[in-house]
Amino acid sequence: QDTDGDDRFGLGGEGDRDSKPDTDTPEVQPSVDNTPKCLNKALAGMSSRWKNWWIRGILTLTMISGFFLIIYMGPLPLMLMVHLAIQIKCFQEIITIGYRVYHSYELPWFRTLSWYFLLCVNYFFYGETVAENFGNLVQRDEPLQFLVRYHRFISFALYLSGFCMFVLSLVKKHYRLQFYMFAWTHVTLLIVVSQSHLVIQNLFEGLIWFIVPISTVICNDITAYICGFFFGRTPLIKLSPKKTWEGFIGGFFSTVLFGFIFAYLLAQYNYFVCPVEYSESNSFLIDCEPSDLFVLQDYTLPSVLQTVLRWKTVKLYPFQIHSIALSSFASLIGPFGGFFASGFKRAFKIKDFADTIPGHGGIMDRFDCQYLVATFVHVYLTSFIRGPNPSKVLQQVLVLQPEQQLSIFNTLKSHLTETGMIPPAIRGP
């Protein structure tokens, strides 16, 4: 514990002598056993170790089943799940920890401003998404055209209003604490909202760019847990004493193998590989001619493998090669998102972010690695995969003024004529 008492939170100093002392110890609420009674009854008599094993296993299978059901329902339920169910819940869990740990019960406007800033940031990010991916909808609705055209100004004005409200809410004896919570809110927004926005962007590139990464993280969590549970002997990192090298290594190899096979299965279906587009019929359209990434190609095996397998070539989807990179990141670097979360929880002396899911903790406990992997997938896509998208370029052209569209048409026509792509116009006598 620190010894400077109230001054750490801006509660001490001249004129503040009547304020009550505070410490660095958070108010930890006792853990709640929210395991369904039927499970507790069925597992009665087991040791706590095996009881936790079965609870985690049953709830994991339940969540995976729900996840694939949502995938079957289509892109819109997936987006709503990422945005409403997951992002908002993760934000609420982290904000609640700050609210409790820093004893900010009497801070004026703290919770109201936190949720207001969440609204502002979501308006900015998802307004950008609407402008970029819902061109057909924007073109038909004049109010939407206005909102898209001045979107960034409106977003800035909304944020500026919240900023001014925060400054006006500053009160004596709470200055430092209020700035602590202001920073806490903004770091939470950076971690949760910006990265959930990248998840949505990945989804528009094709469901496979969403499903494979999130599935590899799930696979790594499960296989690392199983390998560590049965074979773990060597501690991996002090932040997570239960993590072992055996679980880490076993999770890596099983995740790479799973990602390679799972990518092969999904790459065969247009539903998973085609970009998600919003059609003129006010619905999401997933139909296209698959790109070269999802067309089987012959690959020559290294000489060592040719000797062992007696094959010279194999047919693979190029995406399977990329899946190795995604799976490797999910199993080697992805766990550091979990280690980061473990350090965060240790810093504030809490076991889990919340007790939403029996045996697992809060939603943030399940998505600490997912957000890091989603950011990597987005960087990977923009760096190595994504090229110019003709449909998005066309959407931008269609919202221009007629004279601007005509200028682009004449410029493009002249360019194609000069390069021989179209024959020159036939002149009359």
UniProtKB/TrEMBL annotation:
Biological or metabolic pathway of the protein: Lipid metabolism; Phospholipid metabolism; CDP-diacylglycerol biosynthesis; CDP-diacylglycerol from sn-glycerol 3-phosphate: step 3/3
Compartments, record wording: Membrane
Keyword Nucleotidyltransferase tagged: yes
PROSITE patterns from the UniProt entry: CDS
An example Gene Ontology molecular-function term: nucleotidyltransferase activity
Keyword set includes Membrane: yes
Biased composition (Basic and acidic residues): 1-23
Protein name as catalogued: Phosphatidate cytidylyltransferase
Species this chain originates from: Polyodon spathula
Gene: Cds1
